[in-house]
Amino acid sequence: MTAWGLVSQLLEVAIALLAAPLLTGWVSMCRAWLQNKSAPGLLQPYRMLHKLFNKESIVAENASPLFRVMPYAVFGCMVLASGIIPTLSTDLPLAPAADAIALVGLFAIARVAISLAAFDIGTAFGTLGARREMLIGFLAEPALLMVLFTASLITQSTSLPAIVETLSRQELAIYPSLAFAGVAFTFVSLAENARVPVDNPATHLELTMIHEALILEYSGRHLALLEWAASLKLFAYSCIGLAIFFPWGVAQADTPLLMLAAIPVLVLKLAIGGVALALVEAASAKMRIFRVPEFLATAFLLAVIGMLVHILLGS
């Protein structure tokens, strides 16, 4: 582990912690503008986290230790996932020990933890949300793996830093396999982050909510950690998409001083991605929960087609 590698790793985690709520606020602002509504402030997520951290956490009498530990476990998984994804530099000490498969595993651990905690209390909404969350994860994780495998076939590695280095050094070209994988990844990202058309983070309707049903029983610092973790998950998925489909601007392992130049590039790409996400949400309608399996099955099919296109055509 080099000194610059440790610096780049710590800097990536710090930027993820600070920029994740900002990205959530930016998406909310763009979505409100597109819907001709009064937009909340860009710093509203920070104000919400500050308010929740200063409130008392109320825990049900029948809650087990799992219910109390789960917010910290989910938050830790999202922080670690953000540290695996190369956003500023490919010189990451975690890269040799954690690849794309481990990244999907971290998302799965967080999903299982929050679902078990929702079952632990035994409320109707918590159980309903946990079942829906596991259904989405059961369908979304294979599709995400196929997307990552498509990129790994092109670069001959499942390490995200290696994928970024290989793709960024190649000539600018359109890969049909990555085109299919990009559409599949967009579908998976919308489902995994509880965005329209799979879920609507702006409403709390009992019959349609998924993510909100999982965290109804939390308050205070526990709820703050879960909301922060949700922002980190959106940030992580955005950075995965940038690393695979737009890898340019990330500093290579042998150019540590370019990390500072990579910060404004990352901010610009995330800003454009936030506008694109708001456009998708503003142009889409919330689908029925029974249509979600078809939505994610389409994502899996597109990802598999992308992988087969690369295997058969080499492109």
Write the topology of this structure.
Elements: H1 3-34, H2 44-53, H3 65-84, H4 100-121, H5 124-155, H6 160-169, H7 176-192, H8 211-214, H9 220-245, H10 259-283, H11 292-313
> Unreliable runs, pLDDT <50, ≥5 residues?
none
Shape: globular
Largest sheet geometry:
none
Q: So what's the oligomer here?
A: single chain
Characterise this structure:
- The chain is mainly alpha-helical.
- Helices cover 70% and strands 0% of the residues.
- The protein has 11 helices and no strands.
- α1 packs across α3 (65-84), α1 (3-34) crosses α9 (220-245) and α5 packs across α6.
- The longest helix has 32 residues, at 3-34.
- The two termini are 35 Å apart.
- The relative contact order is 0.17.
- The model has no long low-confidence stretch (mean pLDDT 90).
Notable features of this structure?
315 residues, mainly alpha, globular, single chain
In summary, what is this structure?
The protein has helices spanning 3-34, 44-53, 65-84, 100-121, 124-155, 160-169, 176-192, 211-214, 220-245, 259-283, 292-313. With 315 residues, the protein is mostly helical. The model has no long low-confidence stretch (mean pLDDT 90).
